[in-house]
Amino acid sequence: MYVDEGASDSAAASAAVERTFEALPAARGQAFARSWWGQAWLKALEDSALDGAQVKLGRRHARAGAVGAVSVRPGRITAVVQDRDHTRHRSDVLLQQLSAADWDRFLDLVADRAGHIAALLDRDMPPVLVEDAAAAGIELLPGIGDLEPECDCEAWDHCAHSTALCYQLARLLDQDPFILLLMRGRGERELLDELQARSASRAAGETGADAAAEPDGAGVPAAEAYAARDILPPLPAAPPPVAAPGAPPVLGGGTPPAPGVDVAALEFLIGDAAARAQGLLADALSSRHPETPPPPVLTPAQDAVRLAAAAPGAAISARLAAGSGRDARSLAVAVRAWELGGAAGLAVLEEDWTPEPEALARATGRLAAAWEDDGARPRLRVTRNRWTVVGGAAQLRYGRDGRWWPYRREGGRWVPAGPGTDDPAGALAELSAEGWSAEGWSAEG
Fold first, then answer.
1. Facing residues of 415 across strands?
2. How many CA atoms lie within 13 A of 325 on its CB side?
3. Can you state the percent helix, strand and coil of the chain, rounding each to 5?
4. Lowest-pLDDT range of 181-195, 214-228, 242-256, 400-414
5. Helix, strand, or coil here: 79?
6. What DSSP state is assigned to residue 421?
7. pLDDT by residue (tens digit) across 67-107?
8. Which of 58, 146, 315, 342 has a CA-to-CA distance to 363 between 20 and 30 Å?
9. 261: left (phi > 0), else alpha (psi -120 to 50), else beta?
10. pLDDT tens for residues 117-132?
11. Spatial contact of 411 and 399, defined as CB atoms under 8 Å apart
């Protein structure tokens, strides 16, 4: 008589968990178990059965599709098996459940290894998981004598009916090792919920214990991250492209805004956010996305220029100018630099820096080599990263990105005159309308 001595109160509470699998079709010419754990299940059966003829007959029953729907619950599997003469027999196979202490140790060792959780979620049972469990005194797979038969044909050992049931279960185990864990006393949902609770509890404890010792952003060990690579569900399908950003809502209404809230400015910011979101989505869906560098992180003053470039109107532009520490004219010049070169163009306008001596020498040499005719060379004065045409209103600025940016003098200040280029002669060509003195090359300053 089978005695479930290891069943605990919690395992007994799991008795209500039951899964039923529809009858499988005939398996002529196919192996009953392809997974190593399915093969281990059949080995336990074949090593335990005393009558080899019954094992062979049961295998033929299973192969012919004589096993009906299989019910799996903690400690027991059940099915109706039909003989060749169409006689039906209810057959059960019993497997001892794990005790509460066994489950506690098993859940601890699985929670300690992200790879174990990932494998189970992928319907896999790696040998290392079974080995770790065995080292902790927990036998997941059955051994000799662990599969106890009960059949209404009243056979005292494994009969053809219980054998056919075991062969059929091996096919189910191939697809889902959680069936074995259910027989041992835990359903899939219950098991995963307990693992999640333990993992969350441990993570919270480790965070509290290590907060003082570890700097912010300590990260995750590479081995741990790699082990958990399969624990997350597949990524959802990419969203469809959006042709244009949605229209911003109209916030004006019968209720006056709160003090300090500019409704028009808020509507403008909402529209800007929608346009940026649409642009980011289009970039993410583009085939060139992996090669596209991320957009630069802007300072508030730089972002004010970006917003002003969208022509939000005089009132909002005035607020942007004041908020970024500029007057209206300075903001207009900054917007022009942004339109010609984005953040890089704005940096060239506002940064005055000195290249390293080697970089400065290369830049000077490249600029000198841009003119094959000595008589055509402009006379330039070099001040830090700026080459100014002597006696003219033209200037070249050398950016940190290695490009040359043309400037011209307007109303007493230097303003951007064109986009950056790798060709200094081309940059000066942008300023041809200004002219320059061609009395020879001069590098002063």
1. 408
2. 5
3. 45, 10, 45
4. 214-228
5. strand
6. B
7. 999 999 999 999 999 999 999 999 999 999 999 999 988 88
8. 342
9. beta
10. 778 888 888 888 888 8
11. no
